Amino acid sequence: MLESFSDLPEQLRLWLQPLAVIVGSLVTGRLLKYAIFALLDAYNRREPILLTQSVARHLSHPSAWFFPVLVLSFMLPLTYLEARPLEVMRRLVETSLLITFAWGLVKTVDVIQDLVEDHYRLGEADNLRVRKLFTQLQFVKKLVVTLIIFVATALILMSFATVRKIGTGLLTSAGIASVIVGFAAQRSISNLLAGFQIAFTQPLRLDDVLVVEGEWGRVEEITFTYVVLRIWDERRLVLPLNYFIEKPFQNWTRSTAQLLGTVFLYTDYTVPVDAIRKELERYVNGHTLWDRRVCVLQVTDSKERTLELRCLVSAANSSNAFDLRCAVREHMVTFIQQHHPEALPKTRSLVEAKDQPFTLVPEDQTS
């Protein structure tokens, strides 16, 4: 009994020393993280820079785990653990270090994205080149993040001898497995290839205005497998990437955001076309949505009862073109009602009187 008491301090020492090293390493790493980011915060308050602000915002949480594990990995030999417990501890530390490092790399991609988005602003009026870049950036970002996670997972699994043996065995049947996976994931792989094609040939880009399946909307998101279209009434239309490779669709902002808008008016044959044309030019010339490129009125068709007048006006983008079309339509109809009511569409008919020839009776004289 006394021997067990005499051995107690030695046993405590064997347990307390590794525990003290582990706890001390974790605390030291956390203090190191706080010190680094405190300096960043102080620098941001004195001289705000996007890089340091983005680093502080995105890398704060990963660093709170990465630095303690990093310090522990250096201090692990000082624990003086036996071979088997030390090997288990080393594997845990290595796995944690890989996970936190991969997390930090993923957040570093967000920092790079912030820098690019600040340099190239999507909200500008003429943003065609920027939308091209952002479309590629979104796809490349998703690809890089996927590769980081895949490589980190592979490194963690391959650090275990059992998994390495399984992996070696799987490599021998890789040909058969690839064929099976290819058939099973045919649609997913085709979507992935379509994503590469869309990202670099760019039939559509982020914020492009599309007409798809009879719906008008803007491209809100492009993922590995689908495109999200934000419809004008705030619905979302989700379409697979293959759709935009295999089927036709309208892209109203493919090369420029400028657009022509049409307004059709149907009037009587007695309409004074020149007066209507001058009024259109006068009204559009004073409208803020007109971009001063095109303002034309033409007689585009003559039907059996009406003339078809087409007002063609231009605007800087599709939204302005739609609003300008509505304004022109309302004003021109009001103008014809107030100044040329005789030019409104009429229905003329021939009334046959008994024992008399046919007589043309204007509509306004019939009861």
Automatic annotation (TrEMBL):
InterPro entries: LSM_dom_sf, MscS_beta-dom_sf, MscS_channel_2nd. Its main location: membrane. The chain crosses the membrane at residues 21-43, 139-160, 166-185. One of its GO terms (molecular function) is mechanosensitive monoatomic ion channel activity. Residues 188-254 form the Mechanosensitive ion channel MscS domain. One of its GO terms (cellular component) is membrane. Pfam families: MS_channel_2nd. Keywords: Membrane, Transmembrane, Transmembrane helix. This is Mechanosensitive ion channel. It comes from Hymenobacter wooponensis. The lineage of its organism: Bacteria, Pseudomonadati, Bacteroidota, Cytophagia, Cytophagales.
